[in-house]
Specification:
There is one protein chain. Strands 2-3-4-5-1-6-7 form a seven-stranded antiparallel β-sheet. The two termini are about 20 Å apart. The chain has two helices and seven strands; from the N terminus they run E-H-E-E-E-E-H-E-E. With about 120 residues, the chain is an alpha+beta fold. Strand 2 and strand 3 form a beta hairpin. It is globular, with a radius of gyration of 14 Å. The chain has one domain: 4-Layer Sandwich (S-adenosylmethionine decarboxylase).
Amino acid sequence: MTQEHKHLIVRANIGKCPNEDDLNKISDWVRLLIKKIDMKLLAGPYTTYVNEKGNKGMTSVAIIETSHIALHIWDETNPGLMQLDVYSCSNFNPQDVFEEINNKFETIKIEYKFLDRQNELIEV
């Protein structure tokens, strides 16, 4: 297997935010995303809710084979704010990630950078 070192960084405004009762649903979504991009889950996902005024929201992280996924959602704003990192040593299609974000969280606006980190930080 050739290592690819791809890194997708997503910032999205979302219409459907999880709440503190949705920890299992978010962990399930992260597992679904990992399957969708054909990666192997090694640990997690670990999902928690921060209930601090001005910083309320969900955080979930998962370790995939020599890589990671980190998800943060702030739900006090309208629309909600999602920040997502998908770093993988295998190639994957960012459109698959965008589709899963929209299916679960009703994307209002999405911005992203897709980097090839093999030798330098090159935008793909």
